[in-house]
Amino acid sequence: MAGSKIIGIYIGLVRRPYRFVIRRRISSRLENFELHHPASLREFVAELLEVFTTESSNFMTALAQLDDKEFMSSKHKTRRYFAESKELLYIGNPKLADKFAREHSGFWFVTNIGAKEVSHISHMIAQVANVPCQSISKLSL
User: According to the model, what pLDDT value does residue 1 have?
Assistant: First the structure.
């Protein structure tokens, strides 16, 4: 949305339908709330990525760098959520990348994810965008 700035993300992953709200500041006296109802957790991530890649051309690069930093700092993590090539998503098991990866804006993201992973991904997206990410139950008008 031209002339607006995203100032928050609110996520609802406790029960279906999954949903998220993008809060935008239009002017000093006007805010806009966009309610999204993705059909699945996979679509939840895809729609959230679409919102933020539209806002910033280097968003996916910054997100992949944050994810790589988290991946490299954990001995227990066996996959990345985002990468420039799908082969980097599942180190040691490329068959999973063929089956459970989706391309977006020249980058790849995993699709075999549950609500816990989507919550973590949403918070990563918010961190890169420098906006708060909260439960939809915290949303107040």
Answer: 55
Q: d(Cα 113, Cα 24) in Å, to the nearest integer?
A: 28
* Structural domain count of the chain: 1
The answer to whether 105 and 53 have CB atoms below 8 angstroms apart is: yes
Find the domain containing 59 and state its range.
5-138
Strands (E), the chain: 5-12, 19-27, 30-36, 82-83, 101-104, 107-110, 133-135
Read off the pLDDT band of 39 (50, 70, 90): very high
In terms of phi and psi (left: phi > 0; alpha: psi -120 to 50; beta: otherwise), the region of 110 is beta
Cis peptide preceding 94, ω within 30 of 0: no
- Each residue's pLDDT tens digit, 76-111: 888 899 999 988 998 888 899 889 999 999 999 999
| Helix and strand numbers, DSSP H then E, in the chain | 4, 7
